[in-house]
Design goal:
It comes from Spodoptera frugiperda (Fall armyworm). By secondary structure, the chain is mainly alpha-helical. Among the domains are: 106 residues, no CATH class; 98 residues, no CATH class; 72 residues. The protein contains twelve helices and no strands. About 7% of the residues have low confidence.
Length: 490
């Protein structure tokens, strides 16, 4: 075979023109987009196109996750912006080697279909660039707006700062004037304070002298009060020893003296200046009272005490004589009190037992009453108001009305109806006794046969009605649409 002197590019062109599969329509877009060395696009299958779109979308998502569009802080960032993705450039094929369309560009060309595929990433890249540009402008406008707001805020703050400075200068001047005036006032106050402190020192010295004198007087008064307490106790002793006739005669005089003495004590304990006049008045009134005493001399008191001692000695002798009998009487008294106490406790125990028994009997009585009432209610209900009794009464009333032909009356009683039915039964039984037994048996047999025939007909009618209802229900179901959900296929 002769070797062909054509290059790889010329061979590819001749093969493309000779084979109908590799023929491509001339498109301006493909010529503009692709380089001169890259051959035109060939159409791909639908499944392959889906795979390419999915891979491209996944790559775009990964790029959006990892890109960092701005270096602004998050508080000033309004919308994120994507970074431009540089398109991958394919290396041009070596002209000396023979390559197929798939080897040249596996993303856009296949050998199955011989038509070019439109690049799906061009419009997406354009939209992404357009979005990035709009986002950049939006962020720039937002930042400009923020800068204007900051300028306005700083202008207002500057005005407030100037106003505050002016107010501060005025306040500073006023404070200096106030400090000068207050300094002069403080000097004047210091002079007055020194003068008052000297006066106060003199007054305190005088007060100390008065207090020492007051303490001396108070100590003297305390001694007087102590002596008065002793004398008052001695006075009480004398008044208690004195006889009763003297108490009755001079009771008012003693009460006046006691009241005046109590006033003197209360007035001595207080230290107010108003009470000093009252003290002098009460002391004068005490001095004016004439002393009324039963024992005017100590010898009288001694004789009285000796007589009292003799009486006490006699009483002691009498107590010594009767002490044994008194002791026995007291012992018997104690034994009698103990016996009475034991008897009282025993009686109280018996009373408690009987009270418990009475309470138990009351409880059992209440229980028996409740049980009796419940039993009575049940019996009355069963005899009068129960379902069975009312049913029996209705049956008896129906039989009575059927026998006698009277209408049922609500005033009828069960006993009256039963008495009438029993009378009717007695009359019929008397009449039956006079009849022939053979004829009676034939008549009863005919009646029973008629009843059996009627019961058989009723049973047959019931079965036929059941069959009719069953057939009627099945027919209605057959004409109604089914309740099960059915699936219709094309």
């Amino acid at each position: 075979m002769k070797k062909s002197k054509l290059s790889s590019q010329e061979l590819f062109k001749t093969v493309r023109t000779s084979r109908s599969v590799l023929k491509l329509p001339e498109l301006d877009t493909s010529a503009k987009c692709c380089d001169e060395n890259v051959p035109p696009q060939v159409p791909v299958s639908h499944d392959y196109k889906k795979k390419l779109i999915k891979t491209r979308e996944r790559e775009m998502k990964e790029e959006e996750e990892y890109r960092n569009p701005y270096t602004l802080p998050e508080r000033l960032r309004v919308i994120t912006k994507g970074v431009k993705h540089h398109r991958k450039k394919h290396d041009p094929p070596v002209p000396d080697e023979i390559h197929t369309v798939c080897d040249i560009d596996p993303e856009f060309f296949t050998l199955v279909e011989g038509r070019p595929v439109r690049s799906f990433c061009d419009i997406k890249a354009f939209m992404r660039d357009l979005r990035d540009a709009t986002l950049l402008r939006a962020n720039a406008g937002y930042i400009n707006d923020k800068i204007l707001q900051i300028d306005m805020f700083t202008f207002k703050e500057r005005e407030e700062f100037e106003q505050i400075n002016r107010d501060f200068e005025k306040i500073n001047q006023n404070f200096m004037v106030f400090a000068e005036q207050s300094f002069t006032d403080a000097k004047h106050v210091m002079k007055l304070a020194k003068e008052t402190s000297m006066q106060l020192a003199n007054v305190t010295d005088q007060l100390e002298e008065y207090s020492f004198a007051f303490i001396k007087i108070k100590n003297k008064l305390i001694n007087i009060v102590a002596e008065y307490d002793q004398l008052s106790q001695y006075k009480k002793f004398l008044t208690e020893i004195s006889p009763k006739w003297w108490h009755k005669r001079y009771a008012s005089h003693c009460e006046k003296a006691d009241k005046l003495c109590s006033r003197l004590l209360t007035q001595l304990q207080t230290e107010t200046p108003e009470i000093s006049t009252l003290y002098s008045q009460s002391a004068l009134s005490l001095a004016q009272l004439p002393p009324e005493l039963y024992f005017k001399r100590p010898s009288q008191l001694i004789t009285h005490l000796e007589s009292v001692c003799r009486q006490c000695f006699k009483y002691l002798e009498i107590c010594g004589i009767f002490s044994g009998s008194f002791y026995k009487i007291n012992m018997e008294k104690r034994h009698f009190e103990d016996a009475i106490h034991d008897h009282a406790t025993h009686m109280q125990y018996i009373i408690d037992i009987f009270q418990k028994k009475v309470k138990n009997l009351e409880v059992t009585c209440d229980i028996f009453k409740e049980r009796f009432n419940t039993i009575l209610e049940k019996v009355i209900y069963e005899l009068v108001a129960s379902y069975e009794s009312s049913k029996l009464f209705m049956c008896v009333q129906f039989v009575h009305s059927g026998l006698y032909g009277f209408k049922p009356d609500h005033r009828d009683s069960l006993t009256a109806l039963m008495v009438n039915i029993e009378r009717y039964y007695d009359e019929i039984s008397k009449e039956i006794d006079s009849l022939d037994l053979i004829v009676v048996k034939k008549a009863t047999r005919q009646i029973f046969n008629e009843d059996k025939r009627a019961m058989a007909e009723a049973h047959l009618a019931r079965t036929k009605l059941k069959e009719y209802y069953f057939l009627h229900k099945s027919l209605r179901k057959s004409y109604e649409p089914s309740k099960m959900k059915t699936r219709w296929y094309n």
